[in-house]
Hints:
With 434 residues, the chain is mainly α.
Amino acid sequence: MAGTECLQTGxxxxxxxxxAIWIIMSVTAIMHSVTYNMVVCHYRSWxxxxxxxxxxxGFVRRGLTGQLLLELYRLHPYNVKTAxxxxxxxxxxxxxxxVCRMFRRKGWSYAILPLGCCFFYGFxxxxxxxxxxxxLIAYYIFxxxxxxxxxxxxxxxxxxxxxxxxxxxxxxxxxxxxxxxxMTYSFAAMSKEGGSVRISVMIRRFMPFLPALLTxxxxxxxxxxxxxxxxxxxxxxxxxxxxxxSNVPLSELCSDIGQGIVSLSWTTLDTMLFHLNVNCFGYxxxxxxxILSAGILLWLWMLLGNYYIVSRLNTISFRKDATALHTETxxxxxxxxxxxxxxxxxxxxxxxxxxxxxxxxxxxxxxVACLGKLDIKALDNLTExxxxxxTRLPLGSKMAYCIMVMSVPxxxxxxxxxxxxIRILGKIASFFIG
Length: 434
């Protein structure tokens, strides 16, 4: 009896601690987005220039949004930077509403939403570029595919085909957190039917993915060149003259191509080596073997810790209607396989964990909310083995969950060696040391 009371007291303390974390993270996320947007809202930053990529130099990856913005400007001049900021804010709010409704419908706790695995780095922030828009479209891709699968409605099929191709023209990274997981769900559903699978069934299930696969092949083939960035940047000169930046001379602005557009000139090998290097070592150059070892350990801790936090998202809940008490298998299966599909982005194709971790987590939860549990026996067994130590004390307690939330490396970009917690500890240490 005394042990039960002690456990209940510990749970109450954990809930109060998490409430404090939740408030701090929510306020910090909003402050971070506001201050960041004020600092980097200029044409040459990643947050703006990535939106400016267009087709003026020929078909190229990520060019759809820039071409639309440019054509609209030609119809009627407007402040392009303000429009991009507005799109970012609207898509962030829209996505938050969609995700909250999704959580409410599934009986999930809202507690993880302000954390680094969800909205902390991306909410209304230009730094994440098109991510909020991509994740918003991803939700409707999952939703339209579910409706098509259940009713074979032509309208939903057409919507799925259009959205799954459109999202890849906006940014090819969306492929990794949409199409493979949907094909896996389709394969799992087909396997459950049993018996010999007819060719017509296979065609019906996998033909909807063909336009997206062809689109992905196209954007990989036309990934850019050394000349395209100059042509694209020149196409915006009229905008620069009409809406100049107060602290940058027009001549300097026109000659200094934006970071997002310059990336179109990178070779595939250079891109992979760069991302792999900074994911391992971050900003550090001394003692590289020590940093590499620490980086790998923190990288594994980041993935496993986020898996623990998200798969057990109802461990702490402030909702009276959070009915989904056991989410481990339902969410755990999809998180595991989605992590595998995300590996290219988590290693050699990106170094922005503040973007790729939310891709992984939010897309996995969207897939579960729209399509249910990924029913594959091997995944069930693996999830059960991974979750077994999490269900026992001390890892099964609410206090352990809070400690994990505070200690899992939170990093916006580059190596987890430079994670938020280590930066904070460094600042505290430098304050006392002087």
